[in-house]
Design a protein that fits this description.
This protein is mostly helical. The protein is built from 17 helices and two strands. The termini are far apart.
Length: 496
């Protein structure tokens, strides 16, 4: 009988191999947090070097470290909405998306980022109620820490949340702790609360509307390629014009001031020009393509890549200032000793926000990108196009009506809208059923599903993710506020 026992040396070598594999796996998991920690330390050291000898240097160094941590979390969570649909539809790879988003986020922040920011975060707190410099700095630091911690938790559970709402909740909680409930502008807070519903609803409605148009006039046509040659240039022109207006209105405020009518006129001009340019290109690209849906996806891929880059640029230009606003306020107050309603953002502070977001995206962003692009509902280039276009259109419409909407809620709401519309359209659309039955040609007739269990099995939106994300949206402001209020009492003692 053969000896099945391993020699002692082999056993010991196996144990060492297992230990090496375990150590390697653990080490790989610590690489990203290690790089993030190095970035935070470098930001703190850089702030100390640039502010050496200035009043309140210690506070500024601490605030820079907190601001860097905040920026990393924004990159890990918020930027997924810009590139997630393009990745989920396989218009570009995850690595390409990370590089494009990182470059354009940084460019948007540094080139077109706002140079003046409201330190009380959109008028939530009465400046007179926190006029004492120490109280104000403690409130801003508490707001930064609480919003960063909340975004970190949301990223961990896989829920894309609004950065602006997190900061709003942090400022509100610290303001209440410092000066009481009377310090809060409740009318402004009411508008922000309304945006919880308005943002995703508008985003979903616009995205579903464009998907219905694509299905009706392109997908369910006998000659899909001929329909695509007619309508795809129009859709690309609409996207180009919309993004031109979006960037002019929201992304280039620092470079040039453009009002709503001028931005819309610019969008019309750009849209018509792009439509005229891409018509022959789409005709040439569609030559030889088979008359099926897979061929249509090729025509939407390049516009999706462009939209991801433009959304990232606009996000960097528009949202980074909000993220580093409390940090800029702390720097101003520590240096000059006075509380101002608006302050200029130093270049190094903007750099902390821009590069922090890029590092956060590269190190921790893939998880949320996959969530938005693949796990909520299945996306292809046509559906992802609807999501990206909806994000830009909804922001423009909301800005025209003065509604405080969240780009995160709009983009994710658009993904939900596309998924829920497909559920309805698959079961209820007579046009789709007639088209499918016409193509069957074998005598079998496809009918709507009546069985509830079968309908539940065919859900195209994962309900678990839907409930998790909506719950995170609802509790973002109150959770950040409660956490900030508690942190304020710790911060005020440390600063005093």
């Amino acid at each position: 009988m053969p000896n099945l026992k391993k020699p002692t040396l082999d056993k010991d070598l196996d144990k060492l191999s297992y230990m090496e594999e375990a150590a390697g796996s653990l080490g790989r998991g610590l690489i990203a947090p290690g790089i993030a920690l190095v970035f935070i330390v470098l930001c703190a050291l850089g702030a100390g070097a640039s502010m050496s000898g200035a009043p309140g240097t210690v506070i500024i160094v601490a605030a820079a470290a907190i601001g860097a941590y905040m920026a990393l979390n924004i990159g890990a969570n918020d930027v997924a909405n810009n590139v997630g649909p393009a990745v989920g539809s396989r218009a570009m790879t995850l690595l390409t998306a990370l590089i494009i988003a990182a470059v354009f986020e940084s460019a948007g922040a540094l080139i077109a980022g706002g140079d003046v920011v409201s330190t009380i975060s959109k008028g939530i707190i009465d400046p007179a109620s926190v006029a004492d410099a120490n109280v104000f700095m403690a409130a801003m630091m508490a707001a930064l820490v609480s919003s960063a911690l909340w975004i970190n938790l949301a990223t961990w559970i896989g829920a894309p949340v609004s950065t602006t709402h997190s900061i709003v909740g942090g400022v509100m909680g610290a303001g209440i702790a410092a000066a009481g409930f009377s310090a809060v502008n409740w009318a402004t807070m009411g508008g922000i609360a309304a945006s919880w519903v308005i943002s995703p609803f508008l985003g979903g409605l616009v995205a579903a509307g464009f998907l219905a148009f694509i299905k009706t006039f392109i997908i369910y046509q006998d000659d899909k390629i001929a329909a695509a040659r007619k309508w795809v240039p129009v859709l690309i022109g609409v996207m180009s014009g919309t993004f031109a207006s979006y960037l002019a209105l929201k992304g280039l405020k620092k470079i040039v001031h453009i009002d709503m009518p001028m931005s819309l006129l610019l969008g019309v001009v750009v849209g018509l020009a792009v439509w005229a340019i891409v018509r022959p290109l789409i005709r040439r690209q569609s030559e030889g393509l088979e008359n099926r849906n897979q061929s249509l996806r090729i025509l939407f891929s390049v516009p999706l890549v462009c939209s991801a880059a433009l959304l990232s640029f606009a996000h960097g230009a528009n949202d980074v200032a909000n993220a580093v606003g409390p940090l800029a306020a702390i720097v101003h107050t520590a240096e000059l000793g006075d509380v101002a309603a608006k302050v200029s953002i130093p270049l190094w502070v903007m750099a902390v926000g821009a590069f922090g977001i890029s590092f956060g995206l590269l190190l921790f962003g893939p998880r949320l990108i996959e969530m938005v692009g693949q796990q909520i509902t299945k996306l292809n280039p046509m559906r992802a196009y609807c999501v990206s276009l909806s994000a830009a259109i909804t922001v423009i419409v909301a800005s025209g009506f003065g509604l405080p909407v969240s780009s995160t809620h709009i983009a994710v709401g658009a993904v939900f809208g596309v998924g829920f519309f497909r559920e309805w359209y698959t079961e209820r659309s007579k046009r789709r059923l007639d088209f499918v039955n016409q193509k069957q040609g074998n005598g079998n007739v496809v009918r709507p599903v009546r069985n509830r269990e079968e309908q539940a099995r065919r859900h195209l939106v994962r309900r678990a993710h839907f409930m998790t994300i909506v719950a995170a949206w609802v509790v973002t402001v109150p959770a950040a506020a409660v956490l900030s209020a508690g942190l304020y009492f710790v911060m005020v003692k440390l600063i005093a």
